[in-house]
Design a protein that fits this description.
312 residues, alpha/beta, 5-stranded parallel beta sheet
């Protein structure tokens, strides 16, 4: 038996144990059904994902508290995955700067094979833990950083390798997978295993598993940013107004929080270079732009704390 044949047999044996790879015999004739019925079946499958995520909420919350603690000290949040999992990490990371005004270097998405892998399959990239180590080494990990390995199967060498490398350097590690007792969860300090069951199309983990991963990544980044003071209530007061829609949203948020009229909102935003939190502080505390900036800096960016300090 050749070594490649042996590896192939070992891999097939591993896949046979994964619920995400299991065959659904009741769907064997799905291609013969009317389109409306297929759509209803898929929708019913998707409706089960939120419940699977709910079962992991305590583990998700524990990971978020640990991530926020490190990011408050200046650490970074790094996602690492291959294929769909990697793309979802890159997507979540790329949306943090416009949503929360974060430095693009603070939330980073790594995908096996690099940027080209976002749109094209890179042969063998997901099978290389060494590639993950190289990608993370280039970032110069510190003990304040967090690495989240993302893999539907929970066995992808790139994701497992990323977590193992990061943990060995003292970074916080989180493993997000969609199978129980995964190698990824075992390698990480915080294991999150959202078991969504067999896919509608056998082994197509861009479906329920991908949806589950997207939901969890939404929670990791959004709630971490809430903990870091990037919101005021459920308003995105750190939004970066990089286009007309976001500029309109900025004006609307300032008006919602302060109750100020359009002209006052515009003056406050002009006095603070468009910074929403600063403008709110100018209007509610009656301070000028530089004072608002100082109060927010002293409050580590938390608007409620800055408002309290201004009123004391």
């Amino acid at each position: 038996m050749t070594s490649s044949t042996s590896r192939d047999r070992d891999l097939r044996s591993q896949l046979d144990t994964l619920t995400t790879e299991a065959f659904r015999p009741e769907l064997a004739d799905v291609d013969r059904l009317p389109t409306l019925e297929i759509a209803r079946l898929m929708n019913a499958e998707d409706a089960t994902v939120a419940g699977a995520v709910a079962a992991q909420v305590p583990a998700i919350a524990a990971a978020i508290d640990a991530i926020a603690e490190r990011m408050a000290r200046g650490g970074r949040l790094v996602y690492a995955g291959a294929g769909t999992a990697g793309r979802l990490g890159v997507l979540d990371a790329s949306e943090c700067p416009p949503t929360f005004n974060t430095d693009p270097a603070r939330v980073v998405g790594l995908i096996a094979g690099g940027p080209d892998a976002m749109v094209t399959s890179v042969e063998g990239a997901e099978d290389s833990p060494e590639l993950a180590e190289s990608d993370l080494a280039a970032l110069g990990l510190t003990t304040d950083d967090t690495v989240v390995g993302v893999s539907a199967s929970g066995r992808t060498p790139y994701a497992v390798g990323a977590v193992a490398y990061a943990r060995g350097r003292g970074a916080l590690t989180v493993g997000l997978s969609c199978n129980r007792d995964s190698a990824l969860a075992a390698a990480a300090e915080h294991g999150i295993e959202v078991v969504v069951g067999p896919e509608f199309l056998t082994g197509s983990t861009r479906l329920k598993a991908g949806t589950a991963q997207k939901l969890v990544l939404n929670m990791l980044s959004t709630i971490t940013m809430i903990r870091l003071g990037k919101t005021y209530g459920n308003l995105m007061v750190d939004v970066r107004a990089s286009n007309e829609k976001l500029r309109a949203r900025s004006r609307r948020i300032v008006a919602q929080v302060t109750g100020a009229g359009d002209e006052d909102v515009e003056r406050a935003l002009a006095a603070t270079d468009g910074e929403v939190k600063h403008a709110i502080l100018v209007l509610l505390a009656g301070v000028d732009g530089p004072t608002a900036a100082r109060l927010l800096d002293e409050a580590d960016g938390h608007l409620r704390a800055a408002l309290a300090a201004a009123g004391s």
